[in-house]
Amino acid sequence: MLFRLEKRQEPSRFMLYATPVASVLLTMVVGAIIFSLIGYDGIGAVREIFFTPLTNAYKWQDLGVKAAPLVIIGVGLSIAYRANVWNIGAEGQYIMGGLAGTWVALATYGMTGPWILPLMILAGVVGGALYAAIPALLKTRLNVNEILTSLMLTYASVQLIYYLIRAPWKDPMGMGFPQTRLFSEAARLPTVIPGTIVHLGVPIAVLVALAAWFIMSRSVFGYQMKVVGAAPHAARYGGFSENKTIWLALLVSGALAGLAGVLEVAGPFQRMVPGFPTNYGFTAIIVAFLGRLNPLGVLFAGIVMAITFVGGEVAQTTIGLPNAATGIFQAMVLFFLLAGDILVRYRIRRVVANPAAGAA
Amino acid sequence: MPLRLQLTGITKRFPGVLANDNVTFSVKPGEIHALLGENGAGKSTLVKMIYGIMQPDAGEIAWDGEPVVVASPKAARKLGVGMVFQHFSLFEALTVLENIALGMDAKIPARELEARIRAVMSQYGLLLDPHRTVATLSVGERQRIEIVRALLLDPKLLIMDEPTSVLTPQEVEQLFTVLRTLAAQGCSILYISHKLHEIKALCDTATILRGGRLVDTCDPKQETSRSMAEKMIGAGLKDIVRQPGRSMGLPKLVVSRLSTRKAGHFDVAVDSVSLTVRAGEIFGIAGVAGNGQNALLDALSGEIISDDKDAITIDGYPLGLLDTTGRRKYGLCAVPEERNGHAAVGDFTLSDNSVLTARDRLGMVVLGLINSGAAKTYTGKVIADFAVKALGPGSTAGSLSGGNLQKYIMGREILQKPSVLVVSQPTWGVDAGAAAAIHQALVDLAAAGSAIVVISQDLDELLALCDTLAVINLGRLSGARPVGEVSVEEIGLLMGGVHGTTEARDAVSA
Q: Which candidate from B55, B325, B336 shows the least CB-CB separation from A354?
């Protein structure tokens, strides 16, 4: 008995939505087997990573706080990837957004006023966008691959944090620790639910996803991103410039990564520290794909990824799973998703050898 | 003598369509047998099963009287079936010899292969230097490589899929001579084409398919082109209706010394092309594929922007520096040759494809937002007016057959009422019924006062459709002549690059 892939006449909408769910389920099954084989409580690991964050109401606020930056960055990446612009450096743009916000916070240190926080956010957005402008410029002018430039700039931005917090921005009262001083009250993101750690970034993430969904599905901008990604030649025929699209895609995804960065530094961190780069920018790549490059899908995918982060921390303490386990689970989700993607355009058919053939 | 090929009750079903329904016909040794049918009639599917690319769901294939299962193209070649595809699979940077060597099932030393190639070439008069790089060859010469490749296997049945769509009239004659020689030696030929007069000239028998079913097997020499076309489409064929005594208006589209830069290594650029098209005129541009037609279309549509604002004008207004969107606003619409991925996006719905070119002219965009209702309404109108076979505006472009997609694309542009329409290969791979509808729509648009440029490799189409004709060769355009005053031979020579002078065609030595 043989199986054969057969092209579908129309891409399957069912598979489009079913494969992300299936990839998460498969990850749980395979993850349980792998961790059992290497001597951990595999089923327990899956339970702690995927279910404890959901069943334990106390963890919900953590989920929101972790999901917010993933969703904001993931939405930006989903827009860029739609246009086949592969911004892999969201982590760097996130860092630059955080640094730009930190700069405003330090420059306004000790001041009060409702204008400080909006100014920080603006600086973060601009910082992220400007950092993404470098790959855009190199791509459109010199045709340098944006995957490489955006990725390498991430490492440059990490070094910039280390430099700034060790020298010019070092907390004068910090006893030598490499970190900035704690932002003043006016430069900190307020919490939206009293008594929790849920900050303003969480509703902003939801708003960003909704706005992006509307723009991508209804506007000429969204159409431009999709048509350039789907058929560049047709896009040119339709009057959309490829270079302009590359610029827009990188600036938008950079700006959103920068927004996530400034919200993160003004919210959970409230100061710039060496531990600021937490790979949200890289995990958001998985989020974007898991969400089918659809902003609303990204919202759900961001929550799923946040579950693995929170659950990973739980599993570290309860069953002693190493921190790297979270990464393995996240990578498996992406792996199964990409592998399952073929079912959207193809179906599996059983090939039965024709018994009539050959008999005269 | 047993029949070379006998198909009995061949049936093939795809999801949603019955591609072949109980098809039965046979090919005698040495017979040139035409396979006729509209797009989607099931010709390709049938041929793919004979060549082993697909397996029939039911029915039987017999070869020289023996029932066979053709499991793969390799098995088909072993039986003695050769095939020349419509689209060549050649590496442009390699030589003729290298290309042929790559396609052989058996490993043959280069020296011996070359000797055999030369033997086949001289036997059939297929003159070609085996050491030339494919990129330097004309389309007709490239086709000869494919034929030689098939002949090297000593086929007993040669399948030719739309072989003349890219040839000049002289090249077509040469091909026919080769095919007749082959047939005289006992090789059967299965000849797939839309060009009915060629089938009348070449074939002994014609099998006509419609909607997957066999409708008739006839002798093309006893039929008229019209009667065969009517069997193909299953209805009376409409003639192009022209209003008598119409006159041309003032010059509308004026192109002067339009040039483009060579983009790729094997690209042919447009070289100082000038032409004038009057309101109501249909201006035809003939030429063998790969002589700068694509660059010319891109330069006219605005995909390639000129340096000179006056290189292209409509009613005297300069358009040279504008992009496609800008030119469309001034009434210049265009349809490129490649349907999927250029004129339309396969993954998008038809409605979204309407947004691609019609959004500004028809007010589908308000404050940066797309009015999808307007796009849907317009798409519905295109589908209805041009009889596009689609489930509705929500169908993806990629799910339509080639002919239906072309009807949709032509309709999308024509219903925008452009004052100038430039189209490349408007009926390429489109069945007779759809082609007639597209031609009529172009004639009606011209009658309404638009200027139309038709770039095509199909000379019959241009002669039937156009008022004026010019020929493009290596990016240069010949002088324009009224259609009534120019002979097919003359155009054929221009297509081959002979511009009235005694310019020696590069000698084809073997």
A: B55
- Is residue A356 included in any domain, yes or no? no
Query: Tens digit of pLDDT per residue, chain A (360 long)?
Result: 577 777 777 778 888 888 888 999 999 999 999 989 988 888 888 888 898 888 888 888 999 999 999 999 999 999 999 999 999 999 999 999 999 999 999 999 988 889 999 999 999 999 999 999 999 999 999 999 999 999 999 999 999 999 999 888 988 887 878 899 899 888 999 988 888 889 999 999 999 999 999 999 999 999 999 999 999 999 999 999 999 999 999 999 999 999 999 999 999 999 999 999 989 999 999 999 989 899 999 999 999 999 988 998 888 888 888 888 888 888 898 899 888 888 887 888 776 654 444 333
Tell me, yes or no, whether B205 lies in a domain: yes
**Is the distance from CB of A285 to CB of A90 less than 8 angstroms?**
yes
Which chain B residue lies closest to A9 (C-alpha atoms)? B399
Residue A357 domain-assigned?
A: no
- Lookup result for tokens 């058929």: A231
Which range, of A119-128, B77-86, B277-286, B370-379, averages the lowest pLDDT? B77-86
Q: Which domain holds residue B160?
A: 5-233
CATH of the domain at B353: 3.40.50.300
In this prediction, the answer to ipTM > 0.95 reads: no
Instruction: Please state the domain count of chain B.
Output: 2
Q: How many domains does chain A have?
A: 1
CA–CA distance, A303 with A286 (Å, rounded to integer): 12
Same structural domain for residues B171 and B263?
A: no
**Are B261 and B217 members of one domain?**
no
Q: Say if A105 falls within a structural domain.
A: yes
Task: Dig out the tokens for B71 from the structure.
Answer: 């499991």
Phi, psi at A72, each rounded to 5° = -60, -45
Phi, psi of B473, deg, nearest 5: -145, 125
Domain-located, residue B82:
yes
The partner residue sitting opposite A219, judged by closest CB among B14, B344, B369, is B369
Distances (CA, A) of A336 to A25, A81, A312, B57: 10, 19, 19, 34
DSSP labels, B491-509:
HHHHHTT--SS-PPPPP--
Is the CB of A346 inside 8 Å of chain B's CB atoms?
A: no
What tokens were used for B233?
């489409």
Q: Which of B185, B207, B233 is the last residue of a domain?
A: B233
CA–CA min distance B236, chain A (Å): 31
Tokens (6 digits) for A39: 């001597």
- How many residue contacts between A and B have a Cβ separation below 8 Å? 81
Handedness of CA B151, B155, B160, B161 (dihedral sign): negative
Whose structure tokens read 């472009």? B397
Give the helix/strand (H/E) hosting B213: strand B213-218
Are B257 and B157 part of one and the same domain? no
Structural domain includes residue B186: yes
**Is B241 inside any structural domain?**
no
CATH of the domain at A240: 1.10.3470
Tell me, yes or no, whether A359 lies in a domain: no
- Chain B positions touching A224 (Cβ under 8 A) are none
Cα→Cα distances B379→A220, A232, B331, B352, Å: 18, 22, 19, 9
Residue contact A218–B372, C-beta within 8 A: yes
What is residue B349's DSSP assignment? B
pLDDT digits over B260-292, tens only?
A: 887 766 678 898 999 999 999 999 999 877 788
What is the spatial distance between Cα A308 and Cα A330, in angstroms, rounded to a whole number? Answer: 7
